Automatic annotation (TrEMBL):
<keyword id="KW-0411">Iron-sulfur</keyword>
<dbReference type="InterPro" id="IPR020578">
    <property type="entry name" value="Aminotrans_V_PyrdxlP_BS"/>
</dbReference>
<comment type="similarity">
    <text>Belongs to the class-V pyridoxal-phosphate-dependent aminotransferase family. NifS/IscS subfamily.</text>
</comment>
<dbReference type="InterPro" id="IPR000192">
    <property type="entry name" value="Aminotrans_V_dom"/>
</dbReference>
<dbReference type="InterPro" id="IPR016454">
    <property type="entry name" value="Cysteine_dSase"/>
</dbReference>
<dbReference type="Pfam" id="PF00266">
    <property type="entry name" value="Aminotran_5"/>
</dbReference>
<keyword id="KW-0808">Transferase</keyword>
<protein>
    <recommendedName>
        <fullName>cysteine desulfurase</fullName>
        <ecNumber>2.8.1.7</ecNumber>
    </recommendedName>
</protein>
<keyword id="KW-0408">Iron</keyword>
<dbReference type="InterPro" id="IPR015424">
    <property type="entry name" value="PyrdxlP-dep_Trfase"/>
</dbReference>
<dbReference type="InterPro" id="IPR015422">
    <property type="entry name" value="PyrdxlP-dep_Trfase_small"/>
</dbReference>
<dbReference type="InterPro" id="IPR015421">
    <property type="entry name" value="PyrdxlP-dep_Trfase_major"/>
</dbReference>
<feature type="domain" description="Aminotransferase class V">
    <location>
        <begin position="2"/>
        <end position="362"/>
    </location>
</feature>
<keyword id="KW-0479">Metal-binding</keyword>
<keyword id="KW-0663">Pyridoxal phosphate</keyword>
Length: 382
């Protein structure tokens, strides 16, 4: 089988498993305990915090370990918005991950926030000029995803963050999909907060982090024992944090050579699909996109049917966000680009990883042609 669903999750790295193993065995202590076993766990947690911060180019004190990227985004959006005394207004885009969109809706419904949404173009990019119009004196937060999880479009984060900074508005970016593929230096990006997920870079599932600038006041989403400097209560997942830090550092080391290589694979694959499947239409920006992400709609088919045919041919991929798996609704990302719902339901997403090969790209393109033709044949006979 050929795995082309790395945006959903990535294989766990051996070095991450080896790094976390001691904290699942001998150094199993609670990092809040004041004895040698607890202190050993606390030391591992502190080292993971420093290592993660080094990749992000920020202070270690800004790292908050969470249970997932979703929780990290919730803490960023709710925590910054509710912790700011400035007002009850935030700006985001309609193409964000549901973690951001649902958090914004919660703030609107339960706390009386007003939410303005940037208008994406047909490739999914949003405009700094429009952001400058939407930001108000009472804006508490701008949150725009670094790279989209379905179509792979990369946003002009630095330019967007500059607009927010000029108005002294905190800027958060969901960088879950960008990690390992794009630069994450928070100073260079100009962001005030950045959220990540461990299992996208080779750590196990169940660990994420939020980096937040020290000047931000964060209202906790999870209350209780005051861990993580009172920003996220609950006994820390030390082993998970160590694995995340290890995987993140490894992904960053590989990025300078890996991103261009995987971009070439993606382009080879895209050319093969567009050249052999007349109904194929690539979604997202053709250049400003994640190295490994290729997404299409296939008019006259159904995405789930194409997925089944692809799996029969040894290709594992996705019809969109894995977080929305099982939903009959058309992707909010694709409809947000202006695609009609029937066409949006034909979407298929392929995401290459660090171990993908040229052979994978060639075989997958051939499999797509066969799968689409098979679905069309079934529809003609039904």
């Amino acid at each position: 089988m050929m795995y082309l669903d790395h945006a959903a999750t990535s294989p766990v790295r051996r070095e991450a498993l080896e790094a976390m193993w001691p904290y699942l065995t001998g150094d199993f202590g609670n990092p809040s305990s004041h004895h040698s076993l607890g202190e050993s766990a606390a030391a591992g947690l502190a080292a993971a915090r420093r290592s993660s911060a080094a990749v992000l180019g920020g202070r270690a004190s800004g790292v908050v370990f969470t249970g997932s990227g979703t929780e990290a985004a919730n803490l960023a959006v709710k925590g910054i918005a509710l912790g700011a005394p400035r007002g009850r207004h935030l700006v985001t885009s309609p193409l964000e991950h549901e973690a951001v969109l649902a958090s914004a809706e919660y703030l609107r419904r339960m706390h009386g926030f007003e939410v303005d949404y940037l208008t994406p173009d047909r490739t999914g990019r949003v405009s700094p000029a429009e952001l400058a119009i939407l930001v108000r004196p009472d804006t508490t937060l701008v949150s725009v995803q670094y790279a989209n999880n379905e179509i792979g479009t990369v946003q002009p984060i630095r330019e967007l963050a500059e607009v927010a900074r000029a108005q002294q508005v905190p800027f958060h970016t969901d960088a879950v999909q960008a990690a390992g593929w794009l630069p994450l230096d928070v100073s260079a990006l100009g962001v005030d907060a950045l959220s990540l997920s461990g299992h996208k870079v080779g750590a196990p599932k169940g660990i994420g982090l939020l980096w937040a600038h020290g000047r931000l006041s964060l209202e906790p989403v999870v209350h209780g024992g005051g861990q993580e400097r009172d920003r996220r209560s609950g006994t820390e997942n030390v082993a998970g944090a160590v694995a995340l830090a290890t995987a993140l550092a490894a992904a960053e080391r590989e990025r300078p050579a890996g991103s261009p290589r995987v971009t070439d694979l993606r382009e080879r694959f895209v050319a093969g699909v567009l050249g052999s499947v007349p109904s194929a239409r690539q979604t997202g920006h053709p250049q400003h996109r994640l190295p490994g992400t290729a997404s299409f709609v296939f008019a006259g088919t159904h995405g789930e049917a194409v997925l089944l045919e692809l799996e029969r041919r040894g290709v594992w991929c996705s019809s969109g966000s894995a977080c929305a798996a099982g939903s009959d609704q058309a992707s909010h990302v694709l409809t947000g680009l202006g695609l009609p719902e029937p066409l949006a339901r034909t979407a298929v997403r392929f995401t290459f990883g660090r171990d993908s090969t040229e052979r994978d790209a060639e075989l997958a393109a051939a499999a797509v042609q066969e799968a689409v033709e098979a679905v069309r044949g079934l529809q003609r006979t039904s």
